[in-house]
Specification:
The structure holds two protein chains of two kinds. Chain A has helices at residues 25-35, 41-53, 69-74, 104-112, 129-140, 160-177, 214-220, and strands spanning 12-18, 81-86, 91-96, 116-122, 145-151, 185-190, 233-240, 255-259, 265-266, 270-274, 279-287, 290-291, 294-295, 300-305, 316-319, 326-336, 347-352, 355-368, 375-376, 386-398, 410-415, 420-427. By secondary structure, chain A is α+β, with helices and mostly antiparallel strands. The longest helix of chain A has 18 residues, at 160-177. The radius of gyration of chain A is 24 Å and the shape is globular. Chain B has two domains: 11-194 and 300-307, Rossmann fold; 208-291, no CATH class. The model of chain B is unreliable at 295-300 (pLDDT under 50). By secondary structure, chain B is α/β, with parallel strands linked by helices. In chain B, a hairpin with a 2-residue loop joins strand 7 and strand 8. Classes of the chains: A alpha+beta, B alpha/beta.
């Protein structure tokens, strides 16, 4: 690692790993951290000790991802963990989600911020029900880059024919289900995370594989929002009105503060404020009160307009000519996250960007069996269910289809009585 | 997929933008937030993020420090100076006041006071009716933090329930709470120790002097370097050497600062930020491993403290 002398900064990549401990997921993460020298000596000593205590010969890298006391007691992973490593040119955030069926909500959570997913397949077992589930969820949550890692190649004698058969089986499964089509690219790689083959270092035992290593794939993967021109979307988080009596220059200062969810903005652009529909040109784009030439996607800026328009938190600035639809009825794919089932009788809150509205469920079209992707009739939703639903909203939202824009197509459902986040929605 | 590549943010710009967004969400969603500022490097970064988020306006929250009374004088002096420079209100609440009230009872006079900060923090939350505390904790610090939410919900007793956290998706943060409950918000969750140092370097942020290599008297205790005869912010002399301990002068710096009785320095000749960044890139010891005497008690000690209301 030489993060101090990085010549080119290739930004940041968020990715997730899908699989269970049995697939070697923890070992893969451990290997990435270890081979990029993210693991420091004292941590390594600690896991060496534990490995020895458990009677293992080699250091068990999966111990690096051992989490909470509560989890160690039960021998399970109960939550998404976030881990970090850097190669000097790029910083990585791994969302490590447990792979079992009852943790669909964790997978959806981890997927929501990921731009790439590694789907692990045990080379001895091939495409399993859980592979289908993970693939469907990665597709549903719109992850644009998929890496199918056929792991444990050492246990099938690094056999190319067997690997090719798994790749073919996977390709035919996604084709049949219509997954990822036009929405994501898929790469395949044979691995032995245990031995480090093709993770960071190229395998000597699989000369037949000439493709990139796992780390090469990660280093070259496009970052979020880097691949296409998107419409400008600026949900207003906060309005800055300093009204400093000592500084008359600031008397009329009205800065609209937020994060550019997509697109870019510069001085002179004609914007429309939603919901009121009034237009004005951009007078300045600032960060911390200092002018910048342009605000780009994912940047947090302050926008000043030429005209005085009444704008507050929950409103959205967009470019005139790219105005999204105002919707009071929303059709969406919904993942239910709460132990308390969704009640059609109750009123919930929906948070979409910075806007919150009361909402009522108006219908459930079907539920999806996450293992077979079949549609099932349903009237009620319980935890981990995924369904196509419709909502009626008290206030309009300015939503794009989730497939067009992951930020302005997403919403969460909040239970007002507990304030818990109980659902995750993707606008159709 | 289109092959068009657009300008994207560098990793520090991305982290900064995310932290600004999180702070603005707290300001937008909560009635009475507060930013916890200790004078340490992580909270120094947070103040810069807050400037970028809210200037030319004032911060929409005061700053607060829970002082154990045993904090390094260099750090508490810096804390006061920085708050004054920014023109922001600083609240200091002291564990020693909780001791006087009888709400904190030490097992022995030299017991580390770090974990008792939880009591004083909860008392201050009640006093000012804060509904959100913005803190500088990072997920890379410790494994109990790796699973913490950016907006972490605490019940009336300030407790964290790791098995029952609110799901957190996209960048849609839910900072809602009922009266008496509390949100802990962590804008720099996704920063690592290296990111913090790189940000300090890039932004040319001033730091308390003890972060840089300096010579001070120390003793070796259980494999750790323990600074002795330290002047604390309250004027006391802390960590008096025990009988038979050999005091030596050593060139050290602090990777993390906190209560004097439980933060240990590392040997170092890094006397500027560039050298610290270099040292951070090549170190073989984790930040807390070498320097936090209180985390070594058990594998789960941070998790335990957090359940009890700690940051």
């Amino acid at each position: 690692m030489s993060a101090h002398d990085n010549i080119t900064d290739n930004g940041l990549l968020r990715f997730m790993t899908c699989g269970s401990v049995d697939d070697g997921k923890s070992t893969l993460i451990g290997r990435l951290l270890f081979d990029t020298k993210t693991i420091l000596a004292d941590t390594l000593t600690a896991i060496e000790k534990t490995s020895k205590k458990r009677g293992m010969e080699a250091v068990d890298l999966s111990l690096l991802t051992d989490g909470l006391q509560a989890e160690r007691e039960q021998g399970i992973t109960i939550d998404v963990a976030y881990r970090y490593f850097s190669t000097g040119t790029r910083k990585y955030i791994i969302a490590d989600a447990p792979g079992h069926e009852q943790y669909t909500r964790n997978m959806v959570t981890a997927a929501s911020t990921a731009n790439l997913a590694i789907i692990l397949i045990d080379a001895r077992k091939g495409v399993l029900t859980q592979t289908r589930r993970h693939s469907y969820l990665a597709h549903l949550v719109g992850i644009p880059h998929i890496v199918v890692a056929v792991n444990k190649m050492d246990l099938i004698d690094h056999d190319q024919a067997k690997y090719d058969a798994i790749v073919a089986e996977y390709k035919s499964f996604v084709a049949k289900m219509g997954l990822f089509e036009g929405r994501a690219d898929i790469q395949f790689i044979p691995l032995s995370a245990l031995n480090g083959d093709n993770v960071v270092d190229r395998s000597e035992t699989m000369a037949w594989y000439q493709g990139p290593t796992m780390l090469d794939i990660l280093e070259r993967a496009p970052g979020a929002h880097s691949e296409s021109t998107e419409a400008f979307r600026f949900p207003v988080q906060f309005v800055c009105r300093p009204q400093d009596s000592a500084n008359p220059d600031l008397h009329d200062y009205r800065g609209f503060q937020g994060r550019i969810e997509s697109g870019s903005v510069k001085v002179g652009d004609l914007l429309t404020a939603l919901p009121n529909g009034r237009e004005s040109r951009v007078k300045a784009v600032q960060i911390g009160g200092v002018d910048v030439a342009e605000g780009i996607t994912e940047q947090s800026v302050t926008i000043l307009l030429e005209d005085e328009i009444d704008i507050s938190r929950g409103d959205m600035l967009v470019k005139s000519g790219e105005v999204p639809e105002q919707k009071k009825e929303v059709e969406a794919m919904l993942c239910w996250l709460s132990e308390t089932p969704l009640s059609p009788a109750r009123t919930y809150l929906i948070r979409h960007t910075t806007r919150t509205s009361k909402a009522k469920l108006t219908g459930v079209a079907f539920k999806v069996d996450v293992n077979s992707q079949e549609h099932v009739d349903a009237t009620q939703l319980s935890m981990n269910d995924i369904a196509k639903v419709s909502w009626k909203l008290a206030q309009p939202v300015f939503a794009d289809a989730y497939t067009d824009n992951r930020a302005t197509g997403a919403f969460i459902v909040i239970d007002e009585s507990t304030n818990n986040t109980v659902g995750a929605g993707m606008v159709l | 997929m289109s092959t068009l590549t657009k300008q994207t943010l560098s990793h520090l710009d991305w982290l900064e933008a995310e932290a600004i967004h999180i702070m603005r969400e707290v300001a937008g969603q909560c009635e009475r937030p507060v930013l916890l500022f200790s004078g340490g490097k992580d909270s120094i970064c947070m103040l810069r993020v807050a400037e970028k988020a809210f200037r030319p306006g004032k911060f929409p929250f005061p700053l607060m420090h829970i002082d154990t009374g045993h904090n390094y004088k260099e750090v508490t002096d810096f804390r006061d100076k920085r708050a004054a420079e920014l023109g922001e209100r600083l609240i200091v609440r002291s564990v020693e006041d909780s001791m006087k009230r009888g709400t904190v009872v030490l097992k022995s006079p030299d017991e580390p006071r770090n974990k008792h900060q939880s009591v004083t923090l909860l008392e201050a939350i009640a006093e000012f009716e804060f509904d959100a505390c913005i803190g500088g904790a990072r997920r890379d610090e410790e494994k109990a933090r790796a699973k913490e939410r950016v907006m972490s919900f605490r019940d009336e007793f300030g407790q964290w329930d790791p098995k029952n956290q609110r799901p957190e998706l996209w960048n849609l943060y839910n900072a809602r709470s009922h009266r008496g409950e509390n949100i802990r918000a962590f804008p720099i969750s996704n920063w690592t120790e290296m990111d913090v140092w790189q940000y300090i370097e890039r932004e040319k942020l001033e730091l308390p002097s003890i972060y840089f290599a300096h010579t001070r008297p120390v003793v070796m205790r259980g494999g750790a370097i323990v600074p002795v005869n330290v002047a604390s912010g309250n004027g006391e002399l802390v960590n008096v050497p025990k009988a038979g301990e050999q005091v030596v002068d050593l060139q050290v710096r602090f990777r993390t600062v906190g209560d004097i009785t439980c933060t240990a320095p590392v040997e170092s000749d890094a006397d500027n930020i560039g050298k610290i960044v270099l040292e951070t890139a090549t170190t073989t010891i984790t930040e807390r491993g070498a320097t936090r005497l209180d985390d070594q008690t058990s594998d789960a000690s941070m998790e335990q403290r957090k359940k009890e209301g700690y940051f």
